[in-house]
Design goal:
single chain; alpha+beta; Aminopeptidase; twelve-stranded mixed beta sheet; 12 strands; 27% strand; globular
Length: 305
Amino acid sequence: MSGEKWSVTGAVGAFLAVAGEFLLAERARNTVLLTVTETLRIRAAPAGGTDGGAELSGGAELSGGAPLYGWWRPAPTGPGAPGLPTAAFLHTLPFPVLLTGMTDEAAAALADELAAAGHEVPGVNAPEQAAWAFAETWQQRTGMQASVERQMRLFRLAELSWPSPMPEGNARLASAADRDLLISWFGAFNRDVGESYVQDQGAAVDERLSYQGLTIWEADGIPVSLASVSRAVAGMVRVGPVYTPPERRGRGFAGAVTGKVSQAARDAGAAEVLLYTDIANPTSNALYQRLGYRPVEDRVMLRFG
């Protein structure tokens, strides 16, 4: 080993105190980890306080499992503070363990450590090389083989290009009165993308309603499409999920509502507006590129067992 090692904690404040600067250095690539930890930090904060102790797929922020955080950095070689971390992870059941970019050594060491601790890991979400390095060691330690659940591509908004022509209707912020419809659409979206991790859609909707993170496109007064955004963190917002019922598709509603939330995020001061797509879905990939989104990196989600 190189002298580097993993440090693991269940405290989001402790994690961010050590790994926050590292995560912010590449905030786009670390978007999910940053937005999830911010949600968990807010939840953990005591009344009147600011911090506290404790789905490709960003829903992890809504899981009921106890989160686990960790960072990988060189061990001290002399007096003074150790260097910044060079990798980090977050895990909240029932979702895959979420990795930043990291070396094969770091990924293998993390799999080894989690397996030795008897930690339940249903899968891994990471850049491809790190994901397979983790999976190889996990299989050696547990006998569980990995299969590809989803391949994802991260996009960043360059200059917004509005759909032309725009479809009929207009956008409005969703409210508590829309909750039942939103829960239904969140569930339908997960089924469409083949999401195998059980999520509490009511909690997911309530979380986004709490910061006005859901926008509905209406045509003739009827809701026809939805776009969600993550909580703004470090000058960054991530769009998703975007959902249109099958009978309403092909009319430009998804592009219009995505454009509206993208512009709203820019107007609110977001320097980075991001989103993930399923690489296997050519329709959504083409749509977002027409709107002005450009590729940043690819990730893979592997499932064990």
